[in-house]
Model the fold of this input.
Amino acid sequence: MKGRKLEIKPGLQRQARAFVLQAILLLLDKHPKRPALIRAGKQRDDLLRALVPLYILKGTKEPHALVSSGTVSKFWKLHGVKIQGPRVARAWRERIGYSRVTRHGRVLTPNGVQYVQHALEVRR
Done:
């Protein structure tokens, strides 16, 4: 199992991504910093927008493997923020050290957690 990615049949992949988006939205509704996270996403910072959904999933057993740039884009579209999937992917790719790809998918690093928390504190 070492080094193998989570494989999903193409027909089920769309449903699985929709499930992850719903999981992020449910966790956001329960999150104590919900208003601050939404306000942080409305800033003109692509990296922050790309990290907030991963921050919401931090510490859960939700399937991180299915969090893609398109999922992040759809998440922000539901909150009135326009960011395209390629910009999210570029933020993850160019800003090294804030998130990383593991066998289980993209996860937030301690630097990424600190970046989001700092943004939440500054914008109070």
About this structure: The two ends are 45 Å apart (CA to CA). Helices lie at 10-30, 34-41, 46-57, 69-77, 85-94, 110-122.
